[in-house]
């Protein structure tokens, strides 16, 4: 799966592991590269949905969009507030 | 990132690669395993959001929920209709 190869170099530090976090990865593999790319809009909507369930501060969200060949990968990392 | 280790054994066949597809992975790392798990509800809402952008047939969606330690990982695989 293309999704995994892109991020396989990442490691989680033990300090970071102690935090409560939510990570959302969306991979869209297209047959036609010139077709519509709805990932940026989808990202906005998904973040709105996540906020129904947990209090998310906008400055605790990091978003990355990568394109590789016919695949677009959107990564949202959210650090959740401690209770 | 726990997300990647869980699925690293998967390989995409070249036949499958020709399809247009959307994959959504949600990883929730919790400090307290007994806290609320909102992933099943979040999954339903995200699928509803995805349907705003693409025609998704329910029988073209596969959903898997894994729990490993303090992390829950939800995987949605959607095969999109060919245009």
Itemize the secondary structure elements and their pairings.
Two copies of one chain form a homodimer.
Chain A: H1 2-7, H2 14-17, E1 21-29, H3 39-53, E2 61-68, E3 71-79
Antiparallel strand pairs in A: 1-3, 2-3
Which spans of chain A of ≥5 residues are poorly predicted at pLDDT below 50? 4-17
In the residues of chain A, how many domains can be counted?
1
Helix content of chain A: 25-40%
> What's the CATH topology label of chain A?
Cell Cycle, Chain A
**Major β-sheet strand ordering of chain A:** 1-3-2
Largest sheet of chain A: 3 strands, antiparallel
CATH architecture of chain A: 2-Layer Sandwich
Could you tell me which chain pair has the largest interface and how many residues each side has? A-B, 38 and 38 residues
The SSE order of chain A reads HHEHEE
Number of strands of chain A: 3
Multimeric organization? homodimer
Relevant CATH superfamily of chain A: Cell division topological specificity factor MinE
Rg calculated over all Cα atoms of chain A: 14 Å
| Percent in strands of chain A | 25-35%
Tally of helical segments of chain A: 3
**What form of chain A results from the Cα inertia axes?**
elongated
| Secondary-structure-derived class of chain A | alpha+beta
Cα separation of the termini of chain A:
35 Å
CATH class of chain A: Alpha Beta
Task: For this entry, give a set of tags.
about 80 residues, alpha+beta
Describe the structure.
- Chain A has 3 helices and 3 strands, in the order H-H-E-H-E-E.
- Chain A has 83 residues and is an alpha+beta fold.
- Chain A has a single domain, classed as 2-Layer Sandwich (Cell Cycle, Chain A), CATH 3.30.1070.
- In chain A, strands 1-3-2 form a 3-stranded antiparallel β-sheet, covered by helices on one side.
- The longest helix of chain A has 15 residues, at 39-53.
- Chain A is elongated.
- The interface between A and B is large, with 38 and 38 residues.
- Strand 1 (21-29) of chain A pairs antiparallel with strand 1 (21-29) of chain B, so a sheet runs across the interface.
């Amino acid at each position: 799966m293309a999704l995994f190869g892109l991020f396989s170099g990442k490691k989680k530090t033990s300090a970071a592991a102690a935090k409560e976090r939510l990570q959302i990865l969306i991979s869209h593999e297209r047959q036609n590269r010139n077709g519509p790319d709805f990932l940026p809009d989808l990202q906005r909507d998904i973040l709105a949905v996540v906020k129904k369930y947990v209090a998310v501060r906008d400055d605790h969200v990091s978003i990355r969009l990568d394109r590789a060949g016919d695949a677009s990968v959107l990564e949202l990392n959210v650090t959740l507030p401690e209770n």
